[in-house]
Amino acid sequence: MYRLLIVDDEPVIVNGLVQLFQGNKDFELDICKAYSSGEALEIAKKTKLDILISDIRMPQKNGLQLVDEMVYYWPSCRVIFLTGYSEFNYVYEALKKNAENYILKTEGIEPIFQAVKEVIGKLEEEKRLRLQQEKAQRHIQIAEPYLKKELMEAMLSGEPLPTLLTQPIYADVDFGIAAERPSFFLVGQVDRLEVHNLKVLESVQRIFDNHLPASIVGEKAVYKGSSLVWLLQADEKLLGRFRGDQPDTDVNGHGIASYMKGILELVQNECIEVLEASVSFGISGDLLGKWDTLQLQVEAIRAMIQKRAAFGQKMVIVDYEKSTGCESDMSGEMKQEEFKQLLIEQIHRYVHNNLSNDVSLSAIAAEVHFNPSYLSRYYKQITGHNLLEYIQSTKMTVAIDLMRNTSLKLNEIASKAGFDSASYFTTFFRKMTGLSPQEYRNSQ
């Protein structure tokens, strides 16, 4: 499933396009929306993006400037410009940005649909070539330098990195991680590894390395023969982008973890397609000043992943610093069906508590430690219903309850029920009930 972000400073255009894409059965897209370049960049920091449809003329930062920022986070994101202006300068600048298309708003929806179809075709072809290359390389053994491997193993045995780097034997090792800077690690676990072999672990490492941006350096190791561990460090430019005006925030607190989860989503999806193997991940907090806790955190994350695997969950993304909720309720006596019910209750509780905030697939997945694409399938497998349908149904239920039992204005009800605008609320409500919100309220 590809993710589409629609950006325009006119909410009626954004909401209209969202409805048209959701109503078109030719597309299977996870759709995000933003009403400014600033909102769009916040989404880009948290979520993997494949296609961007953006207005050009917007306040503060225009669409052309937005693209420069967007490709920093997601270089392969394809861009379609949508604008009310046909001046040559805009077309010329759009072409310089390698935009896929430049569409006038007066042309209607069909050219937009066609442009997105063409972009999806290109993305599919790129993926096909990438997968083909990976399959061709699976037989190639990639050996890590001996001293790096030994250093990583020593760390995973409990020796702090700062101490290890002072030892003469490692003095000339080109180790990519600086012990005095913020760092974090990932643990990767292949589901049912006993039916695979070391080549699968090496393939997962290569897929991960292919998706790791140049702004994050890393060292890797195989731990206890079955787990993959990456020690990672963001460069100062990336840290600065996430820290903003809070320079003392830790490596997870300023958004690196959310950005990393978007990358892990890509890796997990590719592992399924290339290797036919599901991979779960766990991400740590900042290790700066806590290097002596690395082994304990690795073991804790491995235990979390294994516990979820025991309950039949695949493609999880565990955040060590946010490992609350279901983890605290898991016990050896709990049956798989009981845990599934517990998870669904947690999802429903999150939706109810966050209707007026963020109930996107990515936000819900982060709450329950899942790959967003897999969460959608997992939810439908358990409940028989689409998660988006549940969210929309919940919005309707809350809106109707507020109309029946409060004297709130309709725009206040729209906000509390999670609708971005009163006009969108009216359109959605009429589509679901055949009445406008005011007509419904008058009939009660």
Main sheet strand line-up: 2-1-3-4-5
Shape: globular
- Quick one: biggest sheet? 5 strands, parallel
Distance between the termini: 42 Å
Rounded Rg: 24 Å
Give the total of beta strands: 10
User: What is the subunit organization of this protein?
Assistant: single chain
The helix fraction, in percent, is 40-55%
Low-confidence stretches: 139-144
Average pLDDT confidence is: 86
Q: If helices are DSSP runs of H or I spanning 4 or more residues, what is the number of helices?
A: 19
Q: Which percent band covers the strand fraction?
A: 5-15%
Secondary-structure content class: alpha/beta
SSE pattern, N- to C-terminal = EHEHEHEHEHHHEHEEHHEHEHHHHHHHH
General description of the model:
This protein is an alpha/beta fold and about 450 residues long. Helix 3 (about 65-75) links the parallel strand 3 and strand 4. The chain has a 5-stranded parallel sheet with strand order 2-1-3-4-5, with helices on both faces. A 5-stranded mixed sheet has the order 7-8-6-9-10, sandwiched between helices. It contains 19 helices and 10 strands.
Structural topology:
Elements: E1 2-7, H1 11-22, E2 29-34, H2 37-46, E3 51-55, H3 63-73, E4 78-83, H4 88-96, E5 101-104, H5 110-137, H6 146-156, H7 161-165, E6 184-190, H8 198-211, E7 216-223, E8 227-234, H9 236-243, H10 256-275, E9 279-283, H11 294-310, E10 317-319, H12 326-329, H13 336-353, H14 361-368, H15 372-383, H16 387-405, H17 410-416, H18 422-433, H19 437-443
Parallel strand pairs: 1-2, 1-3, 3-4, 4-5, 9-10
Antiparallel strand pairs: 6-8, 6-9, 7-8
Helix pairs in contact: 2-3, 8-10, 14-15, 16-17
